[in-house]
Design goal:
single chain; Rossmann fold; 2 domains; 11 helices
Length: 266
């Protein structure tokens, strides 16, 4: 379609989660990988349209030989966007994934508080959500695990961690990345099959060939479960729509998109 701008669909997804007041800051967590660089580019564009500012933060745990290269990539992306880049090197106690995550988010929250930023944005995608839900399922999780990662949660008093592209696919972010022309780095540890998430990705790659909408479907399922757990009014309206369709013997052919559209507030 002439004049169509497909990136605007992604913009709408992000704006559902990131709605800072004009003149305020958003901290963008950027590892130098393609997803986080794409998020930085996307939020840079939206910030200029919506009147807020972004700063880019790279967290160096001092554990990977490629960290210096990744830092250079992040600095280069920040320079191209004309945005400030903060390099954070938190002290690490235990050398395990949970400790690294705690240190990373602690450093990002401290930077946000220092800048007066209300949120830190992370580039978790629908694929990340699918992997998180499936790993929880394989551990025998309950409903909380099936709800996956929340789109937003409190990181520290007055600071939220937001995941604005949790409903977006990596393919959508790659399109944003190509439009931006920004540099990015690939993390070699993503190929290490000793990590369960990486091992799961190998098997999901084969499933995605047969079920191309797998990630979006699992991410949507997680969102539905979270709405139910949180008592979101949308969850009640969806149940009412399903009940009405069941009574009319029309539920079998109804898609979630149809039910969700019917459940929107008038």
């Amino acid at each position: 379609m002439r004049g169509a701008r497909p990136e605007r669909a992604l913009d709408a997804v992000v704006r559902r989660v990131v709605r800072p007041a004009p003149g305020t800051h958003v901290v963008v967590a950027c590892s130098g990988g393609p997803d986080s660089v794409a998020l930085a580019a996307l939020l840079d564009r939206l910030a200029r349209e919506d009147g807020y500012a972004i700063v880019i933060a790279y967290v160096d745990h001092g554990r990977r030989p490629s960290a210096a290269q990744d830092e250079c990539v992040v600095r280069s992306a920040g320079a191209r966007l004309d945005r400030a880049v903060h390099i954070l090197r938190p002290a690490i106690g235990r050398d395990d994934e949970a400790a690294l995550r705690e240190a990373r988010y602690g450093a990002l929250a401290a930077l946000a508080a220092e800048l007066g930023a209300s949120c830190v944005a992370a580039a978790h995608t629908a694929e990340d959500q699918a992997e998180t839900v499936l790993l929880a399922l394989f551990r025998g999780t309950g409903l909380d695990g099936l709800a996956g990662m929340p789109p937003a949660r409190q990181l520290a008093p007055g600071v939220s961690l937001v995941r604005p592209v949790l409903r977006a696919t990596r393919a959508a972010l790659r399109r944003e990345l190509r439009r931006s022309g920004l540099p990015y780095a690939l993390d070699p540890t993503n190929e290490d099959l000793r990590y369960r998430r990486n091992a799961l990705r190998v098997h999901l790659a084969a499933l995605r060939a047969e079920f191309p909408h797998l990630d979006a479907a699992i991410a949507r399922c997680a969102e539905i479960v979270r709405d139910e757990l949180d008592g979101d009014p949308r969850a009640l309206r969806r149940r009412l729509v399903r009940a009405r369709l069941r009574e009319a013997d029309a539920l079998r052919g109804a898609t979630f998109a149809h039910i969700d559209a019917e459940a929107r507030e008038p």
